[in-house]
Write a structure and sequence with these properties.
This protein has about 200 residues and is α/β, with parallel strands linked by helices. It contains nine helices and five strands.
């Protein structure tokens, strides 16, 4: 069986960014999700509604995150399925990497780097922190990402992409079994790869 290279996003696939952002604003994820529309990617609007702030902007959203600096990223918890997802990566390929997008400023680079080293061990080097995931696209590489736009751009640049089901994308119907959905998607991609050989 031909094994693909697999790139897996960090926030929203392995770590719980949404809960961390809610904590930074002093509310719960449940409070924010009451205002979220299924499939709505950005949590800026529902966050503002949960806080009762009119004209809540992206700047307002990121302000407490920037104030917390790298400790925000270091404090992100694992999502409940994180270990299963990592086991899935090992099952289908020994050539997998974590790819994660930074936000402006340096604290997310440093915080994410430290989080990865703490979780995977100091020798772990199989990761990239970049907004330009599409540059790694090729027919033998699968991107797993909760951001549908990132998946589309990866696909448009010649890669294979699999959206990880969350409340914030069009695959929210599968949030009760995201691992099953991802596993089926990887198997389908591998079959397509074999047909191309």
């Amino acid at each position: 069986m031909s094994k693909p290279r697999i790139l897996c996003d960090l926030d929203g696939c392995i770590t719980d960014f949404d809960s961390g952002a809610c904590r930074a604003h002093g509310i719960t994820l449940e409070e924010m999700n009451k205002h979220r529309k299924l499939g709505e990617w950005s949590i800026v609007r529902p966050m503002g509604l949960a806080l009762g702030i009119d004209n809540f902007t992206e700047h307002d959203f990121y302000e407490p995150i920037h104030k917390l600096g790298e400790s925000f990223w270091l404090g992100l918890q694992l999502l409940p399925h994180a270990h299963e997802l990592l086991a899935l990566l090992d099952k289908y390929s020994d050539d997998w990497y974590i790819v994660t997008s930074p936000i402006r400023g340096t604290s997310s680079y440093v915080g994410k780097h430290k989080w990865l080293k703490r979780f995977f061990g100091q020798e772990f080097e199989r990761f990239e922190i970049t907004k330009h995931k599409y540059l790694m696209a090729n027919p033998n590489t699968i991107l797993i990402d909760d951001n549908g736009a990132s998946c589309q751009k990866f696909y448009d640049n010649g890669g294979r992409a699999l959206a990880f089901p969350t409340l914030g994308n069009q695959f929210h119907y599968y949030v009760k079994d995201p691992i099953g959905y991802v596993s089926s998607g990887i198997e389908l991609a591998i079959k397509e790869l074999q047909r191309c050989i």
